[in-house]
Amino acid sequence: MMDWNNLLSEERKRTSSTHSDHRNGFEKDYDRIVPSSSLRRLQDKAQVFPLQKNDFVRTRLTHSLEVSALGRSFGNLIGKKLVEEGKVKIEDFSRKISALLATVCLVHDLGNPSFGHCGETIIQNWFKQWFSKDIFSTYKGIKTLTQEQKNDFIHFEGNAQALRILTRLQFLNDQNGVNFTYGTLASLLKYPHSSSEIDSTKGKSYSKFGYFQAEKKIVGKIKEATGIGEKRHPLTFLMEASDDIAYYAADIEDGVKKSIVRWDEEYKAIKEKLNKKYSKGFKFLDEQRDLAEINKVPDRDLVNVQNFRVWAQGEMFKACADTFMENYDAIMNGEFDKELLEASNANDIKIILEEIAVRLIYPCKEVLTLELVGHSVITGLLNMFIEALVTDEGKYKSKQVTGKYYHLISSNFKYIAKLDIDGKPNKTEQDLTLYDKLLLVTDFISGMTDSYAVDLYQTLSGVKLP
């Protein structure tokens, strides 16, 4: 059984220079990431609808803030229950896990590329095609690229990129990134396996991968320090539940705001399916709907769907907390490998909300059009930058086309790519392996906001002037 004393490890790769004792390590993690450029970029990355002029519709940042709030609440509730039941005897346990969950939930989408999850698929498909081309075998350094390294790109994953950002790319003073505690980093490992271990038949945690080969060493330290081994950290289940609860309901609300979802029709259908089980909840919702009509509240559909969201998220929250406690021993032994929401008594709410999103929101004209824009942009940028970096001999002279592309890449990313095993900037461009170059490009492109990606693509395509 995993041990909370290890799971809540406040150890860091580099010992913290702060000695203040009014914050625990996880509160410090939260305070470290809030001012970061990586987090700020999420304000211009799509949740569902990219490139929105409407401030109401959620971005990846507002979604992450909502997930963080849910995670903090889970920490308070679960922490209190575990202490009351005598399962945990650690000082300030509730405070620690609520701070950890608030932090890990805030950064859970940090590695998502522009244009949402569609962006991940575009990158995956691009590399699948690129690796299969005959010309690929002619590139310099191909023999040094292992199958495991290829898989990192073929299965490109935002979760793995988030870990890479936090442990390396969000550069401060050295190669340790923001230098989070091992406890927080372990909780972020939703899929604690490499890209060559993907096997959905083994359980949820094997359905994707959680780290690139470049981060294999730090992941080993994280697993050793926290004692999770090849299993999920228990708090990872609550992070995942917070994410699920937030977006299943919020996506519908955004759909109503954009007049894609006709809420009255959908509400009646939902009530018909769920009223028997949740009669008290629907009685309350009907009362709120009547009150809104009597008071002639403007935007009644929006008000009504917001009331529904609050109720639905509350039901899913309680059910997930119960499921965590009911399966606590199995979770601590690494024997539980499912989504809490899917295994909970409120899975019926999730199924209905998901069906509405799949039927009305994801296939709507605006979403599909913007996803096609994303396909053109990300594919185009990958074509330009990968071709430039792998065909240049490593000199990257600014007078040559390949060199021009190289010099457009963020200086921070180039600096980090040239750090040696000891974290010193001793490597030159000629020392970069093919794997280093591919990581450099995916770091650069996946880190772009939606607007910046479109702007850069249009500029380099000659559609607009810089």
From TrEMBL:
One of its GO terms (molecular function) is dGTPase activity. Keywords: Hydrolase. GO terms for biological process: dGTP catabolic process. Residues 1-27 are annotated as: Disordered. Residues 56-257 form the HD/PDEase domain. Residues 9-27 have a biased composition (Basic and acidic residues). InterPro entries: dGTP_triP_hydro_central_sf (IPR023293), dGTP_triphosphohydrolase_C (IPR027432), dGTPase (IPR006261), dGTPase-like (IPR050135), HD/PDEase_dom (IPR003607). PANTHER family: DEOXYGUANOSINETRIPHOSPHATE TRIPHOSPHOHYDROLASE (PTHR11373:SF32), DEOXYNUCLEOSIDE TRIPHOSPHATE TRIPHOSPHOHYDROLASE (PTHR11373). This is Deoxyguanosinetriphosphate triphosphohydrolase. It comes from Desulfosporosinus fructosivorans.
